[in-house]
Write a structure and sequence with these properties.
It contains 1 helix and 9 strands, in the order αβββββββββ. It is of the alpha+beta class. It has 2 domains: 58 residues; 101 residues, Immunoglobulin-like (Sandwich). The strands form 2 sheets. The chain has a 5-stranded antiparallel β-sheet, with no helix packed on it. The protein has a 4-stranded antiparallel β-sheet with strand order 1-3-4-7, covered by helices on one side. A hairpin with a 7-residue loop joins β5 and β6.
């Protein structure tokens, strides 16, 4: 007995069409490479956003610290005892103390040139110790011509603020901006 078989007629649905010239393995490799590139790009964007977030948090923290310092200075200005300072020409401001700290506001300041510093010197009342310098502003500061700061008095008797042209001043040699006696004389 013989069995006869016939091929069914080819229809449009069964026609696979022209064969794809790209090998399936090569297609898989291309997909893998694209996936790796996309993951690396996503990782780079994530790292960039993380650093940007860190930058914003650091900037916000420093701004909050400045605001807190300024609000403390304003509170001391409102509640402290006002002293009678001597200012350089074209410089104005106020000096107030609460007995523990002195708060200084200065206006009309020119920005410091390269190598210049605005330095506060607290002269001690307890003996012939060297004054301890505190840098209040560096080159290019203050940008708006004004400065507000609070300094711990300890046993200081006088405050002198000078414009110094050295990086680490050891004694006041520059132009005096402000001089004030911190201890109020009793009448």
């Amino acid at each position: 007995m013989r069995v006869r078989t016939e091929e069914p007629p080819a229809s449009d649905h069964d026609d696979p069409g022209p064969r794809d010239p790209i090998d399936p393995e090569a297609r898989q490799r291309v997909r893998s490479e694209r996936l790796i590139a996309a993951v690396l790009a996503l990782l780079a964007v994530t790292v960039g956003l993380a650093f940007w977030n860190l930058h914003l948090r650091t900037a916000a923290a420093s701004y909050l610290e400045v605001v807190a310092d300024q609000s403390d200075a304003l509170a001391r200005l409102a509640e402290g005892v006002e002293l009678a300072p001597r200012f350089a020409s074209d410089v104005g401001g106020r000096v107030v103390t609460d007995g523990e700290q002195v708060t200084v506001t200065l206006t009309g300041l020119e920005p410091m040139a390269d190598g210049e510093r605005l330095v506060a010197w607290l002269r001690q009342a307890s003996g012939p110790r060297e004054p301890s310098p505190m840098i209040l502003a560096g080159p290019g500061q203050p940008r708006d011509g004004s400065l507000a700061c609070s300094l711990q008095i300890d046993d200081a008797r006088d405050l002198l603020v000078t414009r110094e042209a050295v990086l680490r001043p050891t004694e006041p040699r520059g132009e005096p901006i402000l001089e004030v006696t911190l201890v109020r004389e009793r009448p």
